Amino acid sequence: MAAFIVFYDANVLYPAELRNFLMHLAMTGMFRAKWSADVHEEWISSLLKNRPDLTRERLERTRQLMDKAAPDVLVTRYEHLIPGLVLPDEKDRHVLAAAIHCGASVIVTFNLADFPRESLREFGIEAQHPDEFIFNLFDLAPGRVIEAAANHRSSLKNPPKNVDEYLAMLEAQGLTQTTSALREYMHGLN
Length: 190
Description:
Elements: E1 5-8, H1 16-26, E2 32-36, H2 37-50, H3 56-69, E3 74-75, H4 93-102, E4 106-108, H5 117-120, E5 126-128, H6 130-140, H7 142-155, H8 163-172, H9 176-183
């Protein structure tokens, strides 16, 4: 099992397309993905606000499947760290506390401004945009990222997506560098 630990912030777990790709990447064994019950609650609440057609029950099922997808993904017992942390937005302190507690090296988040380098440096943690994170993985092990993308694309059934549609979907999630890199290996996604 990989020793490199990555903590997913709530904003990369919603929308589903990015969450699913990040889950497929986690299954490659290149790193150990982590999150917390607070992160789950945050993405589920946000999704329910924006998608009243979904039910909490359905999203709780997704939550359970995520928690079972890999060993030891759920971070607990980090709450004691929260009061001592300083971030621009106090609501993000639970993310940093959980990342510290589990020994994460990276927090994958869209909200880079909420996790300034100087606030994370003392803990040996870096905040990375999902595109930067995935592109870095691609640089380390392109075959594994391509395999994860191919597995993710083949898992899409409703509706299925051809390679061009799949890459357009990833690009719409803000994964521009990743999409450019994957385009060079489109044959690997078939």
